[in-house]
Amino acid sequence: MLDTFMTTQLQSMAFVSPAKVIAQSEDNRYRVSLDSSDNEDVMGSLVWAVLAIEIEGQLLPEDEVLITGVSLETCYITGVIKRQAPKVSTQTGSYAQVVNHEGTETLQVRDQQDNLIFEYDSDQRRATLSVMDGDLCLNAPNGAIQLFSSAGIRCSSLGPVDIDSRSEVSISVPCVTAAPESKLQLTPQAATLASPTCHINTKQANLLAKHMKVEGESLTATLFRSRLVIERLETIAGRVLQRAKDVFCRVENLQHTQAKSIRTTASDDYYLKSNHADIQAKDDVKINGDKIHLG
Length: 295
Description:
Elements: H1 8-11, E1 15-24, E2 29-34, E3 46-51, E4 64-71, E5 74-82, E6 87-89, E7 95-101, E8 104-110, E9 116-121, E10 126-129, E11 169-173, E12 182-186, E13 191-194
């Protein structure tokens, strides 16, 4: 019995109609859906049709064929209008197929939920690998994995990004000039950063080191406020020049200065206050002024 209503005239009238394959039976008949533009009563009718021509392989669902018959109960497939690309399927339902969409041909691999895993666009020469549900793993237990691109590599993640190596992690940017290349190297014992120029821009920085050594030819620092808490400070310099508007120095115990000569120049006042003052000299002691008050 037909799935849809058909008139007696249609059942006894020979016809030719395009149709779409729905399924295939065990006796090699095809269930098709008629798509006739001449008669609306036939539109969407489901009939069984026998293949009357030789084709390569089997017809697949969604294939478009040409149906001919003397009645809707006796139909034959006499032509193929459009065929879907054949699928290579696994037992779990995953499959590979060539898809032609609006003139663009792509090779697709999909899982059992019809999620796209791999797609290759031959026109744009672009390959896409994606996993909608699950993890993606690249394993080479006895070899190396190489990623090469002439246009750049971009990594983006909504979660953490971890790079773990038991020997060494190295990131380098070769320099076309004679200057050394920029390179970041991480080993289990050390981290090394080498670059002709290094810029660090941050709102807050914390540096914690048990032993630290700084070497260089010059140092320039511009600070709004600086505070140093040091247990012991030792400075060795060829010449020290200091310029300030005001200098306040407070020493709880002893301030000792040992020099070959000491010169102090004050454009206005020079004030020295002490509970006890002792000035000793091997030679002359001179005090020169317009007025000298003692006592």
